[in-house]
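Reopening this ticket.

The earlier resolution said the output was attached, but the attachment link was broken on my side. Pasting everything inline this time so it's all in one place.
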Amino acid sequence: MRTFLLILLLVALPVADGRADTVDVYTGEAAVENKDAGERSRALPLSLSHVLQKISGLRSFEDYPLVKPALDQASAILVSFYYQNVEDVLADGTVEDQLRLVAKFSAVEVDEMVRNLGLPLWPSERVPVDVWVVVDDGLGRRIMPVEFAYAWQSMAEAAKWRGLPVNWPSPDAEGNYPVDAQLLWGGYTEDLVADSGGGAIIIAARREGMEWGVRSNMTYGSQSWTWRVQDVDLQLAMTESLQQAVDQVAAANTIAASDLGTWMHQLTVSGLRNADDYVRCLSYLQEIGVVTDVTVISATPGHVTFDLQLSALPRYLEETLLGGRVLGYDENERQYFLVR
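Inline output:
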């Protein structure tokens, strides 16, 4: 029976292609009381701290004591800034306005700071995670019940703050989802990403006396995790579950500081039939996070050899290419080819 339901699920779901989103890791935010210069000076180090959080994937810098004094450089490496108002929906349904400073810092200076501080590097190309939430309030199991919308917004804000792209399922005109709540309750995330190679998390919450018990099952690429959170406040439990999801994804995809540096790597790609194929291949290589420069060494009909300058060990490039989104690998010919 489960196999039949899973077939229906995979047919009904929108197809995800596992493509990565590019996250702006050089722009950070901080709450401010007003737009005065003094308040801005106070908030700039906090905005830079936010940038370092996104670029490293770390939730805090407790193990990196040199980060705090380094934040004093914020004003010196600032590129631009502006202010924005953010609406925060509270648990009682009220809306609270928050003024934020949004600051963009020099990519070159931030990259150097990350290296000097020995922080891990989470490449800015990140595959989104599909977030499915099921709630059992004692009266039944429902997908994303509207009365808890404040909790979903809190989760979405936490994911955005940490730099993890997420997708939320949408109901049809009648408010129904294409997946059965009972099936999601089972936590079979592997089936949701079987064909896409992307990421999916099922967060199942159930009221247990005075507390909410929240179980999370997540699959991201070839890795899977599960964990539990308990709290009397559903919003806090849900948000912590999402935070732990980011922790897992970031830890699995960051590059250790010891693996950062400068390397040159040659790559030959076959199957390039015309200029459009060449542009597609070149654009893809230039978008890869560990690739800092691309040079063409030679070109023959159907083949192009590139010289790539990398900011991390070549194995990180190879791991990215194994995703097969644009380039595949021919084991017999021992070369890459353009995927049609």
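Reporter confirms the inline version is readable. The mean pLDDT is 86. The radius of gyration is 22 Å.
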